[in-house]
Every structure is written in structure tokens, then in C-alpha cells.
Amino acid sequence: HSVLANAQPVIVIHIKGEIDGGQAALVKRAMADAESKQASAVIIEMDTFGGLVDSAVQIRDMISQSPIETICYIKNRAWSAGALIAIAHQHIVIAPGGSIGAAEPIPSTEKNIAALKAEFSATANQKGRNVKVAEAMVDKTLGFSKYAEPGQILALADYQAIEVGYADLLA
Q1: Pairing between strand 69-79 and 99-101?
Q2: Cβ–Cβ under 8 Å, residues 65 and 89
Q3: Contact 135, 117 (CB under 8 A)
Q4: pLDDT tens sequence across 122-134
Q5: C-alpha 7, offset from chain centre
Q6: d(Cα 157, Cα 97) in Å, to the nearest integer?
């Protein structure tokens, strides 16, 4: 018998457009499917300007708690709520011309910024990524070295994401 007969599948999930309850339900079904099929990995292909924080947090929790290896492929952009989901993955691959970040909450009240900044920081820390980068994506008062002055929200282009360790590979 061939080696391929026993090969574990890789499940691909597409997150495109607004992040909302429908996307969270889609990811929940797909992650359950991946576990039942004993997938070797889950790839989430992402292209989003963001969406609802509560839905993004639900998706982030599913990814960060998954026993399966997770890879985020940022096809074009993982902005705002999408950035939170991306940094929950074990690995991030970014397409040429892709970007990640720009996660200032709307409305940008002190409470919203503090809450989202904590979510980003904890997620980055859990995955061994620089928490200062994650925090600067949410809180524009911080800035981050040569990538964003204080007063500018941090968004990273493909090569910058690799430089700061927020993407493993350009592909």
C-alpha cells in the first residue's frame, strides 16, 4: 500500500471579507472537521479589512486552542480583527504585497483600546511574538521603532512583517 493512503489531510479555510458570526461559525465547523479527519494542519487563507471583535476573539480562541498545527496565509491583508486571528496561528505566511495590522478599534475609546490591546498582547505572547508589535497595531500612541511614529497605527507590509517576526515566509 502507498504512503499516501495514510496521509493526513490538510484543511484549508477561507476567511474573506467581513469577520462576523457567520465566519466564526464557518471556522468552528471547519476546525471540528479537521479534528475528526485527524488533519495534519489547518491553513486559514485570509483577506480581510477586519470586522467584529467578538467574532474575531471566538476565532482566535479556536485557533490558539487547536491541537492541530495552524498556518495563516495572508493573501492580501489581515487588518484589524483579522490581525488578531493571524497572530493566533503557529505560523504566518504572507503573500507578496500583503499586509497585517491597523487594528485600532472603532470607536477608539480608552476602554476599547485597552481591552483590544490586551487581547493582541496576550495572543502574541502565547505564540512567542513580540508583544510591542501587537500593541502598536491597536494603540497608536505607542509607535514601533522605524515602522510607525507615535501617533500612527502600526501596519506592516510583507517584508516588514518578516523583519519583525510576524511572518515566517513570503509566498
Answers
A1: parallel
A2: no
A3: yes
A4: 999 999 999 999 9
A5: 27
A6: 7
